[in-house]
């Protein structure tokens, strides 16, 4: 099965902002840019002709603001606001947008927004979309690089305060990130929090012992408050 692709549309009246988003999108092979519009009226025509899964939507634009445009759509795609203004953040999240990015947008911050988009898609998609055959991934920053971690290579995450060690089939990567944030980026059908400091890949479980889970050569503790969740995966 081929990796799923998602159609993206940029709506922004600033050419520099469009160029930055286009450059960032090249890092994500399953995101396909289907158009770029300088104002909302132009975008209406595009949306009527092409299926769009994700909008990168500026707020301050001529004629119609991004917020007004989003409110006018009956069945809007997922939306990431891209703006130079903080003032609209509360209103934006009341509209259930995926994320709110402040310009200038770094690749790291952009990657976090895309990870949230993938999580939203997994939460609402049918089982086939969230299956192991899809090359879902997240990006972790380490050694001044963004490392692409495929979900099917991830064995478990281990937390040390503000840092997390990702144990994968290819080795370990240490990133400055909270484990609670990374938990939000992982599909719940594939990963399970089993301890304050550990998240495991369910498919990597080889045995469950009293107080411990074996993941091949690795052993991970089960926290008392997480035991009920572990019991659920062993129930018929």
The CATH homologous superfamily of the largest domain corresponds to Response regulator
Name of the CATH class of the largest domain: Alpha Beta
Q: Which stretches of 5+ consecutive residues score pLDDT under 50?
A: 125-135
The number of distinct helices, counting runs of at least 4 residues, comes to: 7
- What is the succession of H and E elements? EHEHEHEHEHEEEEEHEEEEEH
What is the mean pLDDT?
86
* Sheet/helix structural class: alpha/beta
The helical percent reads 25-40%
CATH architecture title of the largest domain: 3-Layer(aba) Sandwich
How many structurally independent domains? Answer: 2
CATH topology call of the largest domain? Rossmann fold
Description of the molecule:
- The chain has helices spanning 15-25, 40-49, 66-72, 89-94, 107-124, 179-185, 227-234; strands at 6-11, 31-37, 54-57, 78-83, 99-102, 137-142, 145-150, 154-160, 163-168, 171-176, 191-195, 198-201, 207-209, 212-215, 218-221.
- The chain is α/β, with parallel strands linked by helices.
- The strands form four sheets. The chain has a five-stranded parallel sheet.
- Strand 9 and strand 10 (171-176) form a beta hairpin.
Give a quick set of tags describing it.
single chain, about 240 residues, alpha/beta, Rossmann fold, OB fold (Dihydrolipoamide Acetyltransferase, E2P), 2 domains, five-stranded antiparallel sheet, 15 strands, elongated
Sequence-ordered SSE layout with sheet pairings:
Elements: E1 6-11, H1 15-25, E2 31-37, H2 40-49, E3 54-57, H3 66-72, E4 78-83, H4 89-94, E5 99-102, H5 107-124, E6 137-142, E7 145-150, E8 154-160, E9 163-168, E10 171-176, H6 179-185, E11 191-195, E12 198-201, E13 207-209, E14 212-215, E15 218-221, H7 227-234
Parallel strand pairs: 1-2, 1-3, 3-4, 4-5
Antiparallel strand pairs: 6-7, 8-9, 8-12, 9-10, 11-12, 13-14, 14-15
């Amino acid at each position: 099965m081929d990796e799923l692709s998602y159609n993206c549309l940029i709506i922004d009246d600033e050419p520099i902002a469009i160029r930055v988003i286009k450059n960032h999108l090249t890092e994500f092979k399953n995101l396909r840019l289907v158009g770029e519009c300088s104002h909302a009226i132009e975008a209406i025509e595009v949306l009527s002709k092409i299926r769009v899964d994700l909008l990168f939507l500026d707020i301050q634009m001529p004629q119609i603001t991004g917020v007004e445009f989003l409110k006018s759509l009956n069945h809007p795609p997922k939306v990431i606001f891209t703006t130079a203004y903080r003032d609209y953040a509360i209103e934006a999240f009341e509209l259930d947008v995926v994320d709110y990015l402040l310009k200038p947008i770094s690749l790291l911050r952009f990657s976090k927004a895309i990870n949230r988009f993938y999580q939203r898609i997994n939460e609402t998609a049918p089982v086939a979309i969230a299956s192991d055959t899809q090359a879902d991934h997240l990006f972790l920053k380490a050694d001044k690089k963004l490392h692409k971690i495929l979900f099917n290579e991830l064995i478990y995450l281990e937390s040390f305060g503000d840092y997390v060690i990702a144990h994968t089939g290819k080795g370990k990567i240490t990133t400055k990130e909270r484990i609670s944030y990374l938990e939000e980026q992982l599909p719940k059908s594939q990963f399970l929090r089993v301890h304050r400091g550990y998240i495991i890949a369910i498919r990597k479980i080889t045995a469950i012992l009293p107080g411990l889970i074996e993941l091949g050569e690795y052993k991970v503790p089960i926290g008392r408050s997480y035991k009920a969740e572990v019991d659920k995966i062993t129930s018929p």
